[in-house]
Amino acid sequence: MRVLIVDDEPLAQTALANVLAARVDVEHFDSANDAVEAIEKLATESYDVLLLDINMPELSGTELADQLRGRNPPLPSIVFVTAHDEYAIAAFEKHAVDYVLKPFSNERIGEALDRAVQRAQGERASKLIEALPQLQKLARPQYSRIAIKSKGRILFINPGDVVAVQAEGNYVLLQRESGSYLLRESISVVAEKLRPYGFIRIHRSVLVNASFVEEIKPYVTGEYGLRVKGGREYTVTRTYKKNLKSLAEFWIGGGAFLAE
């Protein structure tokens, strides 16, 4: 198998190269520092697998994949190697050839390579095309902002500054650490728009920004109490308690993270 590493982080490049060098089924591998250099290499060499970062300067990994869709010979198997959090990754996991979350282990990269080479060429191309709309969400720049209309003005705010969103009849209240905005919109529409930014639904009328959550505690009713930075508490109903599992990458402690 021939593999091309496309990553602008030298440490990630080295770690991936070490894994490839240790595999007997890797005939040859190269490295590209960005997507532009990768295109130059792909113009003169053929590869079976691309280990492709998503966020890179000039041209993102998803944009590179989009450009490769119509190329001849057929598209290589693509394994996306990303530092994006699990909320965005979950959106395309079932569509991608595979993804590996940084920091990664040698074993996880090995699994991804095995999966990539087993995928038939026709299937790998169709799956990547399906994945591209979701993968574009992962390429959102860190400075992404959302536009809201408030008191006749259009304001641009960082979604990371919003602590919670609460339904108020036909309106929603966007609560920041300082100040809030009342908008005429349904909670369901706002939940869908804010999902890529790490917001989870904990109640039919409440969304919270996962990055502000500091504590959860069980109630005898089967519900949970959730406290956010600043001390405000919300009730997590039983219908939405499964969403709490996305708050942490792993669980340390005896028993289950959440009671069934």
Summarize the SSE layout with pairings.
Blueprint: E1 2-6, H1 10-21, E2 28-32, H2 35-44, E3 49-53, H3 61-68, E4 77-82, H4 86-92, E5 98-101, H5 106-118, H6 121-138, E6 146-150, E7 153-157, E8 162-168, E9 171-176, E10 180-183, H7 187-194, E11 199-203, E12 206-209, E13 213-218, E14 224-228, E15 233-236
Parallel strand pairs: 1-2, 1-3, 3-4, 4-5
Antiparallel strand pairs: 6-7, 8-9, 8-12, 9-10, 11-12, 13-14, 14-15
What does this structure look like?
- With 260 residues, the protein is an alpha/beta fold.
- It folds into two domains: 2-138, Rossmann fold, CATH 3.40.50; 146-247, Beta Barrel (OB fold (Dihydrolipoamide Acetyltransferase, E2P)), CATH 2.40.50.1020.
- 29% of the residues lie in helices and 29% in strands.
- The protein has seven helices and 15 strands.
- The strands form four sheets. It has a five-stranded parallel β-sheet with strand order 2-1-3-4-5, sandwiched between helices. It has a five-stranded antiparallel β-sheet with strand order 10-9-8-12-11, with helices on one face.
- α3 packs antiparallel against α6 (121-138) and α4 packs antiparallel against α6 (121-138).
- The radius of gyration is 21 Å and the shape is elongated.
Structure, briefly:
The chain has 260 residues and is α/β, with parallel strands linked by helices. The chain has 7 helices and 15 strands.
